[in-house]
Design brief:
alpha/beta; Immunoglobulin-like; eight-stranded mixed sheet; five-stranded parallel sheet
Length: about 600
């Protein structure tokens, strides 16, 4: 007990009061001994000490031992009658139906505050909703029910270009067999797939015109009855083609076929070849200034052209990369010591020999129908290509493409807000000449998309599927954002700074339909809110999976009951204190106790 604690000073005051009372009785006895028997003084002293002890126990009641069993939590789908044992605590969350003898609580956190010492938590029914899916400090027991018959997973398409193909993927629950179909806004079936229990599916379609559209995903059983359906919102945006500049030190087939592929893909690509002596080939040359580089998304640069750039042009190029532009370095021959040093300053620390080594690409997955089958007859064999024997020795390099032996063909690393990549393949055009333009396009598309300037990330992000009446998280917000609902009224959003740098806010949509997120710069991101009863199997499966994960991360179960100490009640001790003080008062008021006792005995005899 610390000298500065209130408990110490309380005890000291009580002890001093008891000592003072005992001393008073002793002094009174010496002065007035003939006025009463000695046992009366002893009784008064005993009652005084007892009163002090009871006062201490009233102010500091001893802790009581509490033995509790599990906290049984009834969720949606729980039975109406749940058997319990002595010590069990049965509660029902709001989504649970009528449960006999259960204590209703608004959420699981409230239950844990009311009953803070359960041996473990046993969850019954379909599982916890997102409101209660927080880590628990006690063991969690959850016997997961069977998966529902309908959809258990769904991936909605991202915004795409008009006419581009989008994919809707998902998974089926316990339905033995059925059919999923994708229906366009005109109620025409555009794609179907047969599914069985637990099978995944992918349906494809295309939105022909820019704007917003609602497709419908339906799941039917073998009798063609609709099991579930949900709206599939599709947004088509007019895409801005990337702006790419190819700077080469000599003409070659690589730049020629890259130019053709870019034109076929709708990419705005400019080729600038400097052969020396003031002669430049290709497209009309652009001024290599900071203004030009800042307007580009990607620059593809070989070693010869790098050596021909002036100091100001290199500085402008480097500054543009720091500002977000991508730079793809393409070694075409042995690198000089100065070029290696310059590229190392950009983050590309290359080591290895200067030779060209042959390699082969992995065959595409669709070229092997079975694990040990021969390649398909209509698939041309992949040719042997060549690459520079160079390796990025830095630990922060991200490998983008590898050959069949695992050697890196392309890697990149961040530099400021942009990326610097290295592409060591010298004759990728051979894929086109040998009938594999698809692999050629796949590789260059990956290079352009990963290393080029990032796209427009000013659009907000909706986490998960928004439903009416349920909380949805909106992220990547800026300024003071708000949401325009179906009624046209703006609903202000408050960004939660505790989440981190994702800039997220919570929103509770009241009505289904299209909503629009507006940020501080009036940039708009539309999103669709599903009706509350759309595809309920998705909600059941999500709650089931989250509760299973919660049970897996909780502490292991140790005992069926737990023992804890709770603050005791002061009322019994206070009642005893009142009785003792009343006795003291009575003894003080009636000093001739002996005469009173003799009088009572005489009355009883008569």
């Amino acid at each position: 007990m610390s000298l500065s604690s209130p408990t110490f000073w309380t005890a000291l005051v009580i002890v001093l009061a008891v000592i003072a009372g005992v001393v008073r009785l002793v002094l009174w006895r010496r002065k007035a001994e003939p006025q009463g028997p000695r046992w009366r003084t002893a009784t008064l002293m005993g009652l005084t000490v007892l009163a002090g002890l009871l006062l201490w126990l009233t102010l500091n009641p001893p802790a009581s031992v509490i033995r509790t069993g599990p906290l049984i939590v009834a969720t949606a789908g729980s039975p109406g009658t749940i058997p319990t044992a002595p010590g069990d605590i049965l509660i029902a969350l709001p989504e649970a139906g009528p449960v006999a003898e259960a204590h209703r609580v608004p959420d699981l956190a409230t239950a844990l505050r009311r009953y803070p010492t359960p041996a473990h938590v046993r969850i019954l029914g379909q599982g916890l909703t997102p409101r209660d899916q927080s880590p628990l400090p006690v063991p969690v027991e959850f016997a997961a029910p069977p998966l529902p018959r309908g959809l258990t997973d769904l991936a909605l398409p991202e915004p795409g270009a008009p006419g581009a193909t989008f994919v809707v993927g998902g998974q089926i629950g316990s339905l033995p067999a059925g059919t999923v179909e994708l229906v366009d806004p005109a109620d025409e079936i555009v794609d179907t797939a047969r599914v069985t229990t637990g099978e995944r599916f992918a349906l494809m379609a295309a939105a022909r015109t820019p704007g917003l559209a609602l497709f419908t995903l339906r799941l039917r059983d073998p009798s063609n009855a609709v099991v579930e359906q949900i709206a599939v919102p599709v947004e088509s945006l007019v895409q801005t083609p990337p702006r790419v500049l190819v700077l080469a030190g000599a003409p070659g087939a690589e730049t020629k076929y890259l130019k053709r592929w870019a034109e076929d893909s709708g990419i705005e690509l400019t080729v600038d070849i400097d052969v020396g002596g003031g002669v430049r080939l290709g497209d009309p040359p652009l001024p290599l200034t900071a203004q030009t580089f800042n307007a580009l998304d990607l620059v593809v640069l070989d070693d010869r052209r790098w050596e021909a750039l002036g100091g100001g042009q290199r500085a402008a190029l480097t500054a543009a990369v720091h500002g977000g532009m991508g730079l793809l370095l393409r070694p075409t021959g042995p690198l000089s010591a100065g070029t290696r040093r310059d590229w190392a300053n950009l983050g590309a620390s290359l080591t290895g020999g200067d030779e060209a080594v042959p390699f082969r690409l992995d065959p595409p997955e669709d070229a092997m129908p079975e694990a040990e089958a021969e390649p398909a007859d209509n698939a041309d064999p992949l040719p042997e290509l060549a690459r520079r024997d160079l390796t990025d020795e830095g630990s922060g390099a991200v490998t983008l493409l590898r050959d069949a032996d695992g050697a890196a063909l392309a890697s990149w690393r961040a530099l400021g807000r942009g990326r610097v990549g290295v592409w060591t393949v010298t004759d990728s055009y051979a894929l086109v000449l040998t009938g594999r333009p698809d692999r050629y396009g796949e590789m260059w598309s990956a290079l352009f998309s990963e290393i080029g300037r990032p796209g427009d990330h000013s659009r907000a992000e909706v986490l998960g599927i928004a439903r009416a009446g349920q909380r949805v998280a909106l992220c990547r917000l800026t300024g003071q954002p708000n949401v325009l609902g179906q009624d046209g009224r703006p609903h202000a959003l408050r960004i939660d700074a505790a989440i981190g740098d994702r800039a997220c806010a919570a929103f509770w949509p009241e009505q289904p339909g299209w909503h629009v997120i507006r940020d501080g710069e009036d940039r708009q991101t539309p999103f669709y809110v599903q009706p509350a009863d759309a595809a309920p199997s998705l909600v059941i499966a999500a709650n089931r999976s989250a509760t299973l994960a919660l049970a897996g991360t909780a502490p292991t179960r140790a005992a069926s009951t737990s023992t804890s100490h709770a603050p005791g009640s002061p009322w019994p001790w206070f009642t005893g204190l009142l009785v003792v003080l009343s006795g003291l008062w009575w003894f003080e008021r009636n000093r001739d106790v002996g005469g009173l006792v003799a009088s009572l005995r005489a009355r009883l005899r008569s």
